[in-house]
Write a structure and sequence with these properties.
Keywords: Membrane, Transmembrane, Transmembrane helix, Transport. It is a multi-pass membrane protein. With 510 residues, this protein is mostly helical. A hairpin with a 5-residue loop joins strand 1 (8-13) and strand 2 (19-24). Helix 2 runs parallel beside helix 8, helix 7 runs antiparallel to helix 8 (157-182) and helix 17 (336-353) packs antiparallel against helix 20 (386-423). It has a two-stranded antiparallel ribbon. It has 23 helices and 2 strands. The chain has a single domain (31-231, 259-505), classed as MFS general substrate transporter like domains (Growth Hormone, Chain: A).
């Protein structure tokens, strides 16, 4: 039975509030499974270094003081984004020409090699070069979005687009947990790895090898199972005779429009809001490991690598339910635009509240000696003590805030993928449209680490009152998210309609 025949009915509410019933095409899992395997590589490798990058840079002895470490962390993280931004407008248009599958596999092979090089870093220069090379190969996000948009139809587009942030968030959670648990294994697990000289010499190689293993799996599965989705109408072969004009009419080929032609006022407004929200999110994402690793007396939480990895991955369980069940229902009922606005509104208070947890961590540090000892509490009675209760309170508040932010993240950034696909005039421009969005993301990943490291370093060096103390970077993020929400209110409701779908239908009925 074909996919078009095997459909299930879903109740949806149109933009004018009327209920209707549509028949939803089942998801093409035969192609989605290899695509998921391919896509998982980037978020895993991106998040895997977050729990230990502060300690890694600290071990290079390039910073003059502990308060300057965040500057070098920012430079290292930004190097990935600089190189990704340079090549991001290369991968999308390249996939429009040579096909989605070869572009994905080429990038994945480069990602595999460069991440192993990063794990072999013994100096800041080596790590910087390896991370930069990794960024050159990490332009597959736009191509994956194009593949999903081409596999989907109007009935299942929201469910398929919801897979993108699901894959990203699951990869981020797995990567963060792997990085936190496996970094410096000789120190963390002396009985198991104490005699492994290679891990004494390269303390961060083990998590990088695990990350490379997942990339290898994605590469193999992609080579064996992934099919090409780009369809280009070939030029018709016409017989030539004496009546054939010397200048024949243009062939019926789907040529992508120029990049500037895609920048309509609505698309510019959407990209501007995406830039502000993405910048706030990425700055927060980059500054969190620094904030978590910094001493409570300097405005941080005082966590070690294991606790940082745990706190970054703790929301992984909620991701599956929110992404696969909650979001598609909300999108069918309210539309992608309303979900986008709702997500931005939810994320805004997260940035203002999170840094206040440092006060509780500082109190724990004065009472017991460090907030990272939560993982050392083995006996139940220790949790009943005053210090144990405060540990529990700290982690409870942190988990609630992380899940709260995750809900907003899923609503906003799943919806933005749908909205970008909706605005693309045709399938031939999906690669270029998604590359423009990926360019914005790469720009944010360039600015984010530099801003996070430099602003955080400046704020903890100068003992200024709120909001210019350690809260400064978080206040900036919250303000950016607020203005992104305000800008989203100016988007027309027409962005909820898949424009290239209308183009195809019109051309087919003509």
């Amino acid at each position: 039975m074909s996919r078009s025949e095997n459909r299930r009915e879903v109740s949806v509410q149109s933009l004018d509030g009327r209920d209707s019933v549509e028949r939803e095409t089942p998801l093409p899992w035969d192609q989605l499974v290899p695509l998921i395997a391919v896509r998982l590589a980037e978020p895993i490798n991106y998040a895997l270094i977050l729990p230990f990058v502060y300690q890694m840079v600290q071990g290079f002895d390039v910073a003059k003081s502990s308060k300057d470490v965040s500057l070098y962390v920012g430079v290292l993280m930004a190097s990935f984004s600089v190189c990704q931004m340079i090549t991001t407008m290369f991968w999308g248009p390249l996939s429009d020409r040579i096909g989605r599958r070869p572009a994905l596999l080429i990038g994945l092979a480069g990602d595999l090699a460069t991440f192993v090089l990063f794990g072999l870093s013994k100096s800041f220069t080596w790590a910087l070069v390896a991370r930069s090379l990794n960024g050159f190969c990490a332009g597959n996000g736009a191509v994956v979005k194009s593949v999903i948009a081409e596999l989907a139809d109007d009935s299942n587009r929201s469910r398929m687009m919801a897979l993108l942030p699901l894959i990203y968030n699951v990869g981020m959670a797995f990567g963060a947990a792997t990085g936190g648990l496996l970094a410096d294994p000789v120190r963390q697990y002396p009985r198991a790895f104490g005699n492994w000289q290679v891990f004494r010499t390269f303390p961060y190689l083990l998590p990088c090898l695990v990350g490379s293993l997942t990339t290898s799996i994605g590469l193999v599965v992609g080579m064996l199972q992934l099919k090409e989705t780009l369809v280009i109408t070939p030029e018709p072969e016409n017989d030539v005779d004496e009546n054939t004009p010397l200048l024949s009419p243009r062939p019926n080929v789907m040529h992508p429009k120029s990049t500037m032609a895609l920048l309509t006022p609505t698309f510019r407004r959407l990209l501007s809001g995406n830039w502000l929200a993405g910048l706030a999110f990425i700055v927060g994402q980059q500054v969190y490991p620094i904030f978590a690793a910094t001493k409570p007396s300097d405005g941080g939480l005082g966590f070690g690598t294991r606790s940082i990895g745990f706190s970054l991955s703790v929301s992984g369980i909620a991701i599956l339910y929110l992404q696969l069940v909650v979001y598609p229902r909300l999108e069918r009922k309210h539309g992608a635009l309303k979900c986008y606005q709702m997500g931005l509104r939810i994320m805004t208070p997260y940035f203002f509240v999170l840094p206040w947890l440092s006060m509780l961590a500082s109190h724990i540090e004065r009472t017991v000696g460090g907030s990272d000892a939560i993982l050392a509490l083995a006996l139940p009675e220790s949790w009943i003590s005053h210090a144990g209760f405060e540990y529990c309170l700290l982690w409870t508040l942190l988990v609630v805030l992380v899940v709260f932010q995750l809900v907003g993240d899923i609503l906003a950034f799943t919806s933005i993928n749908l909205l970008v696909a909706n605005i693309a005039p045709s399938r031939a421009t999906l690669g270029a449209s998604n590359s423009l969005q990926q360019l914005i993301t790469s720009l944010n990943r360039l600015i984010g680490p530099l801003a996070a490291g430099s602003v955080w370093s400046w704020s903890i060096k100068h003992e200024l009152p709120y909001p210019f103390n350690s809260h400064l970077i978080w206040v900036i993020c919250g303000t950016l998210m607020f203005f992104s929400w305000r800008l989203s209110l100016r988007l027309p409701s027409s962005v909820d309609v898949f424009a290239s779908g209308r183009t195809r239908q019109a051309s087919n009925s003509a």
